[in-house]
Amino acid sequence: MNRSHTTIRRFCAIALLAFVPAGAATPAWADPFFFSTNDADGLLAALSQPAASRTLETETADDFLLGETTVISEATIVGLIPDGASVADIGDVEIEIYHVFPRDSAVPASTAVPSRVNSPSDVEIDSATRDGAEGTLAFDVDLLEASFAAANSVVDGIHPAPANQTNGDGPTSGKAVQITMRFTPPIVLPAEHYFFRPEVQVTGGDFLFLSAPKPIVSPGTTFLGDLQAWIRNSALRPDWLRIGTDIVGGAPVHTFNMTVSLAGQTVPGAGTPGTASCHGKTISALSDQFGDIDAAAADMGFAGPGPLQDELREFCDAVQLQKPHKRADRRRR
Q1: What is the DSSP track for 28-59?
Q2: Dihedral sign, CA of 253, 213, 91, 333?
């Protein structure tokens, strides 16, 4: 699927500089942020959706790295829907972002899985959740290929240790779709290593998140420390399994990335969350970049300076607590 260059052109349009009137101070523009794991490689399709008639809620997550404070405004994922479904059958999309274990997690971890090293944390970052059903995410769906095959899949074979290695659920196929999401408001995150987890609701069927090359290859965004994709269902929660190492196995073990891209803008000089100076320093950094807070809000995709200020307060005040995973009690559908 030759989507990468089209996607990169679309997202990198945010790099265009705005006109600066004569005599005005030239703002110190930040770099646009773009991350991609590249196109789907046809090796794996993994369930990632809310609970359905025959499956438990299942979450598939892959990692990304931020080198500095970043405002993420858009994302894309690529996955399979059943042959008999259409893009109109995608009813909702939700994303969550996780720290890397042991952040936001019970320590020591349980023995229900072989390892939690380099897994997503037990619980998500509350302030970074976006959901179409709650009006914080808008999405479009494009049909990429009417028939696309994956060599293996993970749908039902998600079990605690020692029964975790099932070799996968076998080949599968369906319609390959790309889902483009816009976050309202955008997500503000400090420099750190994270996991990105989408869930897609498909009426009468499953959504299978498609894998991408590992290691990441050009024109994808390579980075040191790229981790493999992890998966869990509501029976396994709060633990996660490595899709390649723990479930699919093999000799040698094949590990996977998932097909995802993220776009936004960096905020050089932003404050440090949890410090008294965070909010003021971040506002000052944005004013230096854009001229004033109104221009910053407009350029980064916020509805106005108020929503931007609200998100910055969340960013500066966020202290993720260890708590039970709230989605067990938060059925939206």
Answers
A1: -PPPEEEEE--S--SS-EEE-BS--SSS--EE
A2: positive
- DSSP secondary structure, 97-157, as one string: EEEBTTTTS-SSPPSSSS--TTPBPSS--GGG-EEGGGTSEEEEEEEEEEEEEES-EESS-
Question: Domain coordinates of the chain in residue numbers?
Answer: 4-268
How confident is the model over 264-323, as pLDDT tens digits?
999 999 999 999 999 999 999 999 999 999 999 999 999 999 999 999 999 998 754 434
- Cβ neighbors of 52 (< 8 A, separation 6 or more) are 205, 206
Contact indicator for 262, 34 with CB cutoff of 8 Å: yes
User: Which residues does residue 98 pair with via DSSP β-bridges, in sequence order?
Assistant: 195
What's the pLDDT at 313?
Answer: 93
CB 221 within 8 A of CB 37: yes
Nearest-angstrom CA–CA distance, 142 and 78: 10
Please tell me the distance from the alpha carbon of residue 141 to that of residue 2, in angstroms, as a whole number.
16
The Cα 92–Cα 219 span in angstroms is 29
pTM of the model: 0.88
Assign 7 to helix, strand or coil. Answer: helix
- Three-class SS state of 330: coil
